[in-house]
Design brief:
The chain has 24 helices and 2 strands. It has 595 residues and is mostly helical. It has a two-stranded antiparallel ribbon with strand order 1-2. A hairpin with a 2-residue loop joins β1 and β2. α1 packs parallel to α3, α8 packs parallel to α10 and α9 runs antiparallel to α12. The termini are far apart.
């Protein structure tokens, strides 16, 4: 038995050393090939002896990894990038641009701010719950990912699902904009002035439910389309050499940011009347008109994906039936590397996204942020975001992911808390200062975190299961939104910072309560740094090595699934309770208690 254990250890050590050399000395193909051959020969000698079962499981894996690596190293480094810009694939960039436009509903609170936050005057808890509800719907795209991988339609796994998703989105958008009477604003508007002391439509917050439900349908369709688009992009990315594999992801990520920029401009300039918290007497659009614009955008995406996109083919022998596909997903969840990365994504999202219920009220009453100003700063933010990704990709992608993420998260926490506290205590109450200090300065660094997360997801995806693996990781990240929102609302509850009079009165006691809520939520943000330190690899080469050495545990997979499902169910229940006027007053969702 000692001999067997020693040979086991020797084999694992040989495999680990081989993979390290393959990753670090990728310029020397001959050396890599020689070492791979030697390692495979060692593995075969153990396998032929019949003494070590693990040897037979690893010898072909090593040879396959070596062949895949040689293919990647020897391939044309510019070929796949050029192909992405061709007439047959430009539709991917168009769809990624549209995805960014729609994704702001999930991630861009500033886009929801004019209509839901100001016009309908939703309270802080309910307003914070909207992105969480949308994120939950967005997370369900993992179901579409499974079908996209397992059930080709007319021989294609991606394009039919993309078309189907955009059709659903277009239908819900036109339904929301055409069959419902547009509500009056909550506060009265007279002589181009918003009057916070005069309520003209007390039922305005109730109108939000109709729009939220329709937008949930929109995001369901967009999610179906986007998960297949992302999977197709990952397939193209994996045709690149290992050293430059991230370039396609960078280009499509920039297109995504460009779409986000367009949405910020539409909402900021289109909804800038005093009723929406702006300075104009009349707005360019109303919310229904904007939904109509997005409906036509969805139709254009259908045209682009049908006529301007070429789907890559996959060998039939690599396709799996649904049962085998689900088995593959379950095996992926049991992987030690996947569990480690999933825990990182989950904990990082839960803690990094926590914010106080007072955030939207600080923008309205203390900083006096206008939608147009938000749009202008948002344009600057998007430019900085795209620039930071491009610069990091070209000059700094070799740096340690772990060190970079820790520094970035620490800087973001310090900048956002400083901006909010200076605004709360009336040191500087200016909308430009607030947005530049709270958002722009952080956006420069946020793009780096987004980029690292995308590369992480792409490298973890498995062949023939790109959409499922990618969607599974994205789902875990999105499921943190209701949890982080529930944490933020619960932490803010003792300070009673959701009522408007706390901000219009603006007493010292009110300022202290708001400040305490902000400080407590930022203290939770620090825990995200701990998650980075414990779980994030240093770079993609270390990630590749860990992937090759990954082990499997059924018990850990079950435990992780149960914990995630339980936390998600609890957080979702809290979010739903905070979304309705009858229950948003409960203490457990951050309210002041119901009479």
């Amino acid at each position: 038995m000692d001999i067997i254990e020693n040979r086991n250890c020797s084999l694992r050590d040989e495999k680990r050393k081989l993979l390290e050399i393959i990753a670090e000395e990728n310029e020397d193909t001959k050396t890599s090939t020689t070492l791979a051959t030697v390692s495979c020969a060692i593995s075969q000698s153990f396998g032929n002896s019949g003494m070590v079962r693990t040897a037979s499981c690893t010898r072909c894996t090593i040879q396959g990894e070596k062949e895949d690596y040689e293919r990647l190293v020897s391939s044309d480094e510019s070929g796949s990038v050029k192909e992405l810009w061709s007439v047959s694939t430009i539709g991917l960039l168009i769809n990624k641009f549209a995805e960014g436009s729609f994704a702001v509903f999930v991630h861009g609170r500033s886009v929801l701010y004019p209509f839901f936050g100001v016009y309908l005057n939703m309270n802080g808890n309910t307003y914070n719950s909207i992105p969480a509800v949308f994120a939950t719907i967005w997370a369900l795209k993992i179901i579409s990912a499974i079908f996209s991988d397992a059930f080709p339609i007319m021989g294609k796994r991606r394009i039919p699902y993309i078309v189907f998703g955009w059709l659903i989105a277009a239908g819900c958008l036109f339904s929301a904009s055409l069959i419902h009477d547009y509500p009056e604003p909550y506060y009265a508007v007279e002589n181009c002035t918003r009057l916070p002391s005069v309520v003209s439509n007390p039922n305005a917050p109730d109108s939000a439910l109709f729009y939220i439900l329709n937008l949930c349908g929109v995001l369901t369709g967009v999610g179906i389309a986007c998960v297949s688009t992302d999977a197709l992009i990952v397939e193209y990315a994996k045709q690149e050499p290992l050293k430059s594999r991230d370039r396609i992801l960078a280009y499509t990520n920039i297109a995504h940011f460009g779409g986000s920029l367009m949405s910020v401009v539409i909402f900021g300039f289109g909804l800038n009347s005093v009723a929406y918290g702006g300075s104009d007497c009349d707005s360019w659009f109303d919310f229904d008109t904007i939904l109509t614009i997005y409906g036509f955008m969805a139709l254009f995406c259908i045209v682009s994906i049908v006529f301007l996109t070429k789907e890559l083919t996959i060998e039939k022998k690599k396709l799996m039936p649904l049962k085998g596909h689900l088995s593959g997903i379950w095996r992926t969840i049991q992987s030690s590397l996947f569990l480690k990365m999933a825990i990182y994504i989950f904990l990082s999202g839960c803690f990094a996204d926590v914010q106080s219920s007072a955030s939207v009220k600080i923008r309205i009453y203390y900083a006096h942020v206008q939608p147009r100003t938000t749009a202008l700063v948002g344009c600057v933010n998007s430019i900085f975001l795209m620039t930071s990704v491009a610069v990091y990709t070209k000059y700094f992608s070799h740096l340690s992911w772990r060190t970079t993420a820790i520094l970035v998260k620490a800087i973001i926490i310090v900048l956002t808390m400083t901006a909010q506290l200076l605004t709360i205590f009336d040191v500087i109450r200016d909308q430009y200062f607030y947005l530049l200090a709270d958002e722009t300065s952080c956006t420069i660094f946020l793009g780096i975190l987004v980029y690292i997360a995308i590369i992480l997801s792409a490298e973890l995806s498995n062949e023939a299961q790109e959409a499922t693996t990618y969607g599974l990781l994205t789902t875990i990240r999105l499921l943190t939104s209701p949890i982080s929102t529930a944490i933020g609302n619960t932490i803010s509850a003792p300070f009673n910072v959701v009522e408007d009079f706390r901000y219009t009165r603006d007493s010292w006691a009110d300022k202290l309560d708001v400040a305490y809520a902000v400080i407590c939520t930022h203290a939770v943000n620090v825990l995200a740094i701990v998650a980075v330190f414990l779980f994030l690899p240093n770079n993609k080469f270390q990630l590749s090595r860990l992937k090759a050495e990954s082990t499997f545990s059924r018990g850990k997979g079950i435990a992780f699934s149960v914990v995630i499902a339980s936390l998600f169910a609890t957080a979702t229940a809290l979010i739903l309770l905070s979304s309705f006027p009858q229950t948003d007053c409960l203490f457990i969702v951050g309210g002041n208690g119901c009479n």
